[in-house]
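Morning F.,

Quick status update on the modeling queue. The single chain you submitted on Monday has been processed. Sequence for confirmation:
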Amino acid sequence: MRAWLRRRARRTLHEFRTRLARFQLQQRRQAKVALLGDPVVREAIAAHAAEHRMSDAEVRRRVETYIAEIVPHFSILSYYKVGYNLAKVLVNLLYKVSVDYQDEAALARIPKKDVVVYLMNHRSNADYVVVAYVLAYGVQVSYAVGEWARAWPLEYVFKSFGAYFIRRRYREPLYHAVLERYVQLITRNGVTQGIFPEGGLTRDGRLKLPKLGLLDYICRTVLDGDFARDVWFVPVALNYDRVLEDRSLIRELVAEGDRPGRLSQLFSVTAYVLANLGRLLTGRLRRYGRAAVNFGTPLSLRSWLATAPPGVLAWSKEQRLPELQKLANEMLRRIGAIIPVTPVPLAAAALLSFEQTVVPKAAVLDRMDQLRDRLQEVNAKVVRGGVRIHDIWDRAWRMLRLRQLVVAEGDSLVILPRGRPLLEYYANSIAHLIRIRGPRLPFHKEHERETDLPRLKRPET
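Structure tokens below.
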């Protein structure tokens, strides 16, 4: 049976033309030995034992627990025969996927021996699935996954897909010593990684400030004298016509008086699941518009270090983090510059630009056309930007009507009170590319301002 499984795994790698580090196949065993024998980890064990008056054996057992929690048990057949096929069904059932490359030639020039790290904006938990599906033919991506995925059975599924787990906001130095050395171990061994520099899902739709933890760990791999490779950071931008968990994400940003009660939330979720199950069984289930992925121009770590202060990575943490912040900001700038503009964000931006409750449909279409032209002037990627604006509106309108965000009243469009926060959420995804505010139309006084519509508040940073 083992021989048959190995043959199947080899055929799968050839079928997908996958670039897979050999370390991935033995890392469960090798990582434990390497980490327990690592001088940095041993030093952290001694420091933790002295500080907390524990024996080395007790601290070592804690380290073994951390290793078992972090390190995946990757399976080729699980990733490609189960994960890929499941992703293919789900992604294509829910979305029409668009993939674009801003600088395909630069991506092709990355040397095969070098290490690639994909840095992505984080809009949905579907990001993991969408990017892995898009990259499946050519590369396997090892994700850094938060605590949310440690629930049974997700933990075992993600580990078999090669994902490693991290505890966010867990400050124990011993844990971070183990995590840092593990990240550097897989980087030295050429494992392709995918990380979200924002550190979590955006709540208001805007790009968040970057976190430096994992980026710092990866960059400091080059301090190892035996590591002769380069690390390439590839910006990846995602956007959706519908984020599956959008209402849950914005709920904490809506004023408490405007939030639905728990019973109402439970009813909404139950109704959503039953309605979509009914549509699926009767063949009436429609996709949620576009899921768009855009790959930008990669940045070489060694080329960036050539422009940074000499020896910056060897500085103390307090000294080097401000310099690494510049690298993180540059990568987030590259991600933001290539955010795909799908129909719903474009329509939401046009609707909100008037700052009115009721807007003539013709004015909205005209504003969408203007916004599209301005986006293309700044080299933004407008998905299917060459089609008629009426076609883009038709695609957006299906989602706006389905979500009960906007209703048509004669030749005008009315933004419903519960619809504004979601419209703002989607418009925020492209608000950094252009200014979307425009002049209000000369309407009746009661429609001049949106005084009674709830608004999103900015999350605390």
